[in-house]
Amino acid sequence: MSPQPIKPPSGYVFYFAYGSNMAAATMVRRQFHPEKSVVCELPNYAISFNMFAIPYVEPAFATVYPIEDQDRASLEQGLLMTAHGVVHLIPHNEFMRIVYSEIGNGHKDLAYNVETVTVNALDSSESYEAVVLVTPREMTSSDHWPSRRYLDLCISGAVEQGLPQKYVEWMKNQPCYDPANKTTLQSVGSYAFGICFIPITMLLFFPTTYLAKKEIQAPAFLPMCVLGVARLGRGAHNYGFKHVFGSGTNHE
Questions:
Q1: How far from the centroid of its chain's Cα atoms is residue 35's Cα?
Q2: Does residue 12 have a known ligand-binding role?
Q3: From the CB of residue 192, how many other CB atoms can be counted at a distance below 10 Å?
Q4: Which residues contact 130 (CB under 8 A, 6 or more apart)?
Q5: Residue 4 falls within a domain, yes or no?
């Protein structure tokens, strides 16, 4: 690797994307335009597709967290993988628009936190000083599977960017919550859950999305309310809906 990580030019960041933000479709939708993209590995961080989200709809999203001693056996067995992704060179304002649109809206310790890391290119000896979105592992659970839609989008981005085939195959083998596999009772539960929780979630979510597009950070009370409703929804699912209608986070 290069002796010193390459720093971004003034006014830019190297943004390490590892989930759906690798995909061209997401870049178009979120309006960020990389001037350079390099496939990289993030040493000492594990990738997870089990970050809490919305049961029955989008049960989980991708995140990364630091690898600890307890993870070594899982890494050796292939149950965990060191995070791979792509470093995008983008203007700082475009990166902040991404941060403001993610869960937590960039407010420290609510959900995604911005960390500065060193990532290593896979096709050269270069390394980069990059920023990455990280959550505490306490916000993940193996009971929460990503939706088929979301996982397919992440896989599509990995293929588009040319991530290693072994890594892509590992992604394809991750369990996912597939609407096609819902039972009739789970479908009823999905509608009932949606009626109870989706309207208020969207009511809180739309202002944060609008502000993010204007490159304005939403006031902290908005993401706190969104996360509060999400916790309430998970509680209702775990102690009620799951037992009546079946799980909205996995197919086990």
A1: 22
A2: no
A3: 15
A4: 13, 14, 15, 16, 40, 87, 116, 117, 118, 119
A5: no
pLDDT tens-digit series, residues 135-194: 988 899 989 999 999 999 999 999 999 999 999 999 999 999 998 898 999 999 999 999
Residues classed as catalytic? 102
251 falls within a domain: no
Q: How many residues does the chain have?
A: 252
Residue reference for tokens 């304002």 = 93
CA distance 28 to 118: 26
CATH number of 213's domain: 3.10.490.10
CB 13, CB 90: distance < 8 Å: yes
Domain with 40, as residue range(s), is 12-245
C-beta separation of 12 from 56 below 8 A: no
Helix (H) or strand (E) holding 53: strand 36-54
User: Does 158 belong to an annotated binding site?
Assistant: no
Q: Is 20 annotated as a binding residue?
A: yes
The per-residue pLDDT for range 58-88, each reduced to its tens digit, is: 999 999 999 998 888 888 888 889 999 999 9
The pLDDT of residue 1: 53
Give the number of domains in the chain: 1
Q: 19 labelled as ligand-binding?
A: yes
Task: Tell me if 46 is assigned to a ligand binding site.
Answer: no
